[in-house]
Amino acid sequence: MSTTPSASGALGLTRADWQAVPADLTSTSTADSDETARRQLAEHASLLPIASGRTAARFMGARLREHAVATALMVLTSTIASLCAAWLPRLIGQAVDVVTAGDGRALWRLGTLIVVAGALQAVFSALAWAQVSALGQRILAGMREDVIDRALDLPAQTMEQAGIGDALSRVADDVDVTARAVNNVVPTLVQTAFFVVVTLIGMATLSPWLLLLVALIVPMYIVAGRWYLPRSARIYRRERIAMGARAQGLLSAIHGSRTVHAYGLEQRETQHVAVLSKAAAVLGMRVVVLVSRVVKGINVPENIAIAGVLLIGYLMVHGFGAPLGMVTAAGIYMTSLIWPMMMVIFTLDDVQSAGASLTRMVGVIDTIDPATSPGDERPRDASIDLTGVSHAYGLDAEGAERVVLEPLDLHIAPGETIALVGASGAGKSTLASIIAGTLAPRHGRVLHGGADLARADLEAIRAHASIVSQDVHVFRGPLSTDLRLARPEATDAELEQALARVGALTWARRLPRGIETEVGEKGEQLTAEQAQQLALARVVLQDPEVLVMDEATADEGSTGARVLEQAALETARGRTTVIVAHRLSQAALADRILVMADGRVVEEGPHEQLLGRGGVYARLWGAWSGEG
């Protein structure tokens, strides 16, 4: 029996909507993939912020003011093009009167003016189109850079919760939709709007009676637009969310391709992506249905306008003796107004689609810049103090906060090494991120050398503290360039010294071109151990006073782990160090060990002291070392 996919609940799709999707899409649906899609779509509905229409309008107004000269020239050019277009019906009407009077000389003069007016309209219309597109592309280019810059500045936890697919859809799909609007839709809308305004002015000056007909049909277009545009806007917003969910599903499948192949999950992942794709397809089809309905409604004012201009023209000529040329001009004005009025509605429809993307882009740009320093406090030394620090992620099934770190007070002296141990989910990584300053606690204060991170100079904190996680990235390019990310002015000799300190100089010199060898994507592939050594060498070059290592040696085998442990010890020498220890051999060397469970510190002290207590740490050590 067919069932409505669960993903419909996230985007307001009905059973009929899903049944309208082509069979080749619906045939891949399963209950599991539907539930996964529903959950992912629901999550995407409240991920990275989406700006309101008013906020987006203010943002675009500010960008236009930044390009005030180009904006003024565009308005001037569009006005001239519209004036030329509105001048043509009058010239044609005068030509009709001249032909009726048999004045051949005047006819040649008017014919020349008609040709000149048409040529000027074509030239200025093309110029206005180019100006609008160029201005839009300059603004869009700046927005694209701002979105990427702000997305890269967002905390890692925010990106993890949002999903990379949502961010990717904003810098890919949303930018693409907006770019198409800037190239094609916005120039049309600008020129059409100018033409409608100038045409209405021309009709009023020709005969005020024509405005009665305009007053009759324009409200019909307004009603059609007010019925159609809000409905399509809601669908476009949902469509953008669905596209983000689809991107996330594809990325998850691609990034986990080895696991997918290992467990034969190809069919499940294909079904999952198919359901996410169906959501976007269904929403697109709903827009088509709305378009067909509004077109039917627009036919009514079109027919009324044509019949009305014929009737008014007949009455003006035969009842009031108006010149035939004036009536001809009136007829041209009215018939030429019908198409732009409809174009305004459908151009606004395309603009709404781009507007949905624009609000998503502005939502990221207009957030509080994580890269902006909250204050000017600077660390005085390498001490760390936590007072009443706790943290929670989101809400649980009962609506309560999911507490991952209970209130904690902690003092770490300059140069002291602290090890955090405990089972997975104990809160170790959360505490480490808070100490490093990459995660703001929900409650409490974090001081680095007396400087409150909530009011500190961000650049000073970044230079003061560094974090090395289990997952490190090797950037594409020469190895030397990758190292200089930590200190751009470092010499080749300093790079080699840093590599030597972490035990990486030998293999670095064996690369085809030494430290100038291309590494990363499409370059020389480094092993996981080498990548970790590279990350530690960056820390040596940066030379921070505080170092946080979040299970930086957890994934290596015994030989690799010993190499990395030695590299980590050498990197930490002389610094205040916090180690999230997966291997208890690291914890044994620390000055103090914090044993964590369920977001709390349940034991604290040096290695030998904790073993003597015979508590949680002693049991962990016994299990790990085989002495228990």
Automatic annotation (TrEMBL):
Domain of life of the source: Bacteria
Keyword annotations of the record: ATP-binding, Membrane, Nucleotide-binding, Transmembrane, Transmembrane helix
UniProt-annotated location(s): Cell membrane
GO molecular function: ATP binding
Domain named ABC transporter: residues: 384-623
Stretches assigned to the ABC transmembrane type-1 domain: 72-353
Record membrane topology: Multi-pass membrane protein
Membrane spanning residue stretches: 68-88, 108-130, 185-203, 209-229, 304-333
InterPro entries in the record: AAA+_ATPase, ABC1_TM_dom, ABC1_TM_sf, ABC_transporter-like_ATP-bd, P-loop_NTPase, Type_1_exporter
Entry protein name: ABC transporter ATP-binding protein/permease
